Amino acid sequence: MTEVRVAGVGLTRFGSHPERAGRDLFAAAASRAFADADVDRGAVDELNYGNFMGALSENQSHQAPLMAEAAGVRCPATRYEEACASAGVAVREAVRTVRSGAADVVLAGGMERMTNLDTGAATEGLAIAADDLFEVRSGVTFPGAYALMARAYFDAHGGDRRDLAHVASKNHANAVPNEFAQYRREVSVEEALDAPPVATPLHLYDACPITDGASALVLVSDSYAETHDLDAPVAVTGTGQGTDRMALADRADVARTPAATDAATTAYDDADVAPDDVDVAEVHDCFTVAEVLAIESLGFVDRGEGISAARDGLTTADGDLPVNLSGGLKAKGHPVGATGGSQIAELTRLLRGDHPNADHVPGAEVGVAHNAGGTVASAVVHVLEVAE
Amino acid sequence: MTEVRVAGVGLTRFGSHPERAGRDLFAAAASRAFADADVDRGAVDELNYGNFMGALSENQSHQAPLMAEAAGVRCPATRYEEACASAGVAVREAVRTVRSGAADVVLAGGMERMTNLDTGAATEGLAIAADDLFEVRSGVTFPGAYALMARAYFDAHGGDRRDLAHVASKNHANAVPNEFAQYRREVSVEEALDAPPVATPLHLYDACPITDGASALVLVSDSYAETHDLDAPVAVTGTGQGTDRMALADRADVARTPAATDAATTAYDDADVAPDDVDVAEVHDCFTVAEVLAIESLGFVDRGEGISAARDGLTTADGDLPVNLSGGLKAKGHPVGATGGSQIAELTRLLRGDHPNADHVPGAEVGVAHNAGGTVASAVVHVLEVAE
């Protein structure tokens, strides 16, 4: 079977870019990806693009043709929207398209502009990823939804705010050297504990920020990489996607995320790896508790043990399984439609050894990316490996 | 290679459904598709779903998990957004997924709710499919954009409002027997000519209406159809997609639609058919002039000859190549995110012989669907054939 290689990755700095339209952000990320890949734009067969809330933040849907133009490619271009997993599904379809032989070179990624909205409008905009009829109209926005999940987790397994603060502190520390991160400063556990509440038990540093940014990946078939003598040592060897009921009230247990478990199971089978094989992971920590649930769904720890993983050092930069060495959504930032592509870009840099945090994972061979939509009603998992 | 069969199709009546949420509409279409296919919901491997403006009309993005739930399927579910071609790209990816062997059964379709918005809000909502920075802020909405295309066409090739009125009158006549159509009444050429102007030279009957509705298709591999003894005589044998620059001002010639030409060329090559082989077509007549441009891009007539095709009877119900026997977007209605799936459903019924207008195309073996986004910045073309 055709193997899919990551030929190049490109990111904008994540943060606030009030002076740049969305198309400008994606153009910048794509330019970096083409330069990194040493692939000509004319070679691109398809563009798979993720965006979540452009209809609200830029009065702009139908963004795929615009982004093809911005990226300088002329080819079929498709937008994927799966809330915060929009770029994840865009990448997944790119992987499957290259594997099927329908394309040799696909540009995949995403973009989001959010900081041009005020906090209220951004919060309402994000809420369209939840169930309008049965959640949003009842007053639930995402901090509240994840607070409910955190409470359910604490009730089932124990743990407390201090455990979550360790997740925040870890990810902020990881972001410091990352040139693309929004918040490159350390946050101590005590500082996180002292921050104002957002939705109890979640406080300010339990939540990811509002972010502008873009990600782009040049994905190619192994035969294309060989023919064109590309330096593309990282392969996407596994892809999986899962779907759950949308509203928390319709789920049997909100202290777990079965869509992510389904996605991970599929991706591991696809790659023929086990959780124990994984050396490094980027997971969807839109809230600190989301990282806890993610590492359980990914099988890195047993149920009920995710809560202590950061505190105990398992997932810290020098732990056995570093999680979110990029800084994660928490500190690197979360431009919703770009995040799934950014995770793959960061893992690629870590596995290639050219990430500023790569010295924490010398010799790493297997990486996993976990991208979730809403309260994990959607999840996409990818396995990356250093090709032999 | 695996051949993709249309095992079943389902539609809601197109029109105004103020009492039904979007999820209800899609559930109804999916139920009909499963019944038509005689396929169990549990067999569905993936859901590919198109929606355009749910963020505005229902305060609801991230619709794919909701629609999976509504349709009673539990599987990876993905939303595609490509303006008015949203369901077209959803179907295209479903076809490619089945062909690749990654799935045996895919539910594909789409939904749009629009009539709950007032005309001004609906017009502004539709405008997010155009370029916000360089078109919408200058005051261009879609009636104006297609009026510019009509003027450019008249300047290049001649023709007048009467020619366009023949397109409207033809499609309204076709809609009369269609139980799913929004406007089941005849409109004479004179009535169309006498209607009030919308954007000169386009008048009221040159424009499609605002519509609620949903479409669903059960697409299966030929081996699945055989194993499960399904009656699925229609195959999707060709798929193609094209992309153009978004803003009309950036195009060399706005009296043609090269994205559709690209999509058609790819789809014909894929199916190994030529335009002359086509017996019946459903094309994207959001405005009458769009049908003129479509049949030229599809190669049914030479450039400059599309304008007279309805008037001369080529594309009427009893012509050599009937176009929009469903009534088209013009009279059947245009629930944006559902339209691409509806076209495939209507063609399937025509090729199977169970469409109320099927007696106009006895023995038809090859059908073509043309679905466009915006001012054809995106286009998707599918070829359907009666399987041997």
Tell me what you see in this structure.
2 copies of one chain form a homodimer. Chain A has 388 residues and is of the alpha/beta class. Chain A has a single domain, classed as Thiolase/Chalcone synthase (Peroxisomal Thiolase, Chain A, domain 1). Chain A has 14 helices and 11 strands. In chain A, a hairpin with a 4-residue loop joins strand 10 (366-373) and strand 11. The longest helix of chain A has 16 residues, at 22-37. Chain A starts with a strand and ends with a strand. Strand 3 (77-81) of chain A pairs antiparallel with strand 3 of chain B.
Distance between the termini of chain A: 15 Å
Task: Tell me the CATH topology of chain A.
Answer: Peroxisomal Thiolase, Chain A, domain 1
Oligomer: homodimer
In terms of per-residue confidence, which ranges of chain A show pLDDT below 50 for 5 or more consecutive residues? Answer: none
Give, in spatial order, the strands making up the sheet with the most strands of chain A: 3-2-4-7-1-8-11-10-9
Coarse morphology of chain A: globular
Number of helices of chain A: 14
Strand content of chain A: 15-25%
Q: Element order, helices and strands of chain A?
A: EHEHHEHEHHHHEEEHEHEHHHHEE
Can you summarize this structure?
2 copies of one chain form a homodimer. In chain A, the strands form 2 sheets. Chain A has a 9-stranded mixed sheet with strand order 3-2-4-7-1-8-11-10-9, with helices on both faces. In chain A, α1 crosses α3 (63-71) and α7 crosses α11.
